[in-house]
Amino acid sequence: MKRRNHWLLFAILLLALISLSPSKHSASINPEENKNPELVRPPSQEKVQEEGYIKVVVQMGEAAFLRLQQMNQSFMNVHPLKVDLVNEPREATYSSVRLQLELGESPDIFLLDNVLVRRFAAEGYLLPTESYYFGSLTGEVLSGSLAQNEWNSYVWGVPLDVDPYVLIYNPDTLKKLGVEKLPKSTEEWALLISNFKNQTVVPHLLGLDYDDPYATLSLLWQLGGEKQEDNARSPFKLTEEMKAAIDQVDASRTYLLNKKDPTETSGDIWRMLYNGEVAVVLTRASEATQHEHPRMEISFSEQMDTGRTMWISGRSFVVSAQTDNAEAAGVWISEMTNQAGQRNWYETTRHLPVLKSLYYDSSKNNLPEWIPATLVNRQGGTLPVGATLPVQMNEFAGITEQFLRGTINSKLYKDRLSQIEKDTPEETHEDTLEETLEDIPNK
Q: Which pick of 6, 93, 235, 345 has the fewest CB atoms within 10 Å?
């Protein structure tokens, strides 16, 4: 009897449990689910991971950033990847970028000036790029651009553009100074300066940005401040040629014009150039092309075997060692730097492309005729590179601005220039990089 009661009690409990459990049918007709089904059907974790997310930080003008946003939107339309573009208002300096890296707030991708790439690579903040983006780092890229990103047998950045320093001038003004063409040698520059001193028609010989150390370095090279045997040395090595170039600038200082200091009567430096009030302006190609005029001509000095002649600036995309999505970052970079991306970028920014094939048919790609073959073929002197170069250039900028404005004389300028090399010697950072590469995960 007791056993029968136990079985009866068990049956009652079982029926109660069944009645309390929701059936498949009751779940399928839940009114709340029909109103908002996504609340009860969250996307799978696999789908979220597949789509991915990366953050890209750049520093550029409004028009250039708008173009990059358009290119980025086209990319996201065909790739399951969310890309957050951030345009910082300040220039990408070593200190500003490093602060983000040290605070652990680094984006996945930075756009850096090429001179900064080696410094961050040597300090272990970047991932090598050829492991992920080999397709865009073949012999198709300008050697001069890629060389600045090489360090310790690795490549640490993917070049986006190149922007060499050029000379823009008025041929009619040069004729007034007794020369038919722009100087291309130390002797020709000496002749132009001598003719300028003996005339009263043209008030200014050359304009440049006193705060731009790369412009001044280019001027010193133009005046004969470096020879082929000096190419492996620091650009601040006080050779006899460099000393002579500094003396030439010192003697011509009153004929130079800071292009950021327009006069009250003549307006900006470009109007002065058109009116024949300044003979030559030294600036970046992207700026020169914005002020092209039928009277004006642009010249980029050939990279001769005698040494360097002009600084070639450029920018590259780098990948932070802190990223969790390096492969997705590589896909995005490859898309931004392919042929179509390079054409779009040049059309908006006037920063020249880094892919050699676009130069072989320059008319088809609307590239300027003044570009010499040596820019593509990398003949002549190479640019100085090194992890300490950004620090050295900052010091060089400070003393150069004082020298051009007459605050310090040529002797003190030379002494301080020599001190730069003593205070910040070139370092290989080989031990640091070997340790760093061991710590970098194989993503």
A: 6
Better-scored residue on pLDDT, 317 or 308:
317
Which residues, including other chains, have CB under 8 Å from residue 235's CB and lie 6 or more apart? 217, 226, 308, 384
Q: Report DSSP state, residue 38.
A: G
What is the residue whose two structure tokens read 């710590």?
Answer: 439
CA 113/CA 315 separation, integer angstroms: 4
* Arithmetic mean of pLDDT over the chain: 79
DSSP β-ladder status, 150-151 and 154-155: antiparallel
Q: Are 218 and 369 in contact (CB under 8 A)?
A: no
Residue 5 has pLDDT above 80, yes or no: no
Rounded Cα distance, 97 and 90, in Å:
11
List the one residue out of 439, 443, 437, 398 whose CA is nearest residue 417.
Answer: 398
Half-sphere exposure of 66 (CA within 13 A, CB side): 6
* Spatial separation of the C-alpha atoms in residues 415 and 308, rounded to whole Å: 23
Query: Cβ of 420: how many Cβ atoms within 10 Å?
Result: 20
pTM of the model: 0.80
Q: Which of 22-26, 351-355, 369-373, 378-382 has the highest mean pLDDT?
A: 351-355
Taking each helix axis as running N to C, give the angle between helix 94-102 and helix 114-122, from 0 to 180 degrees, rounded to the nearest 10: 40
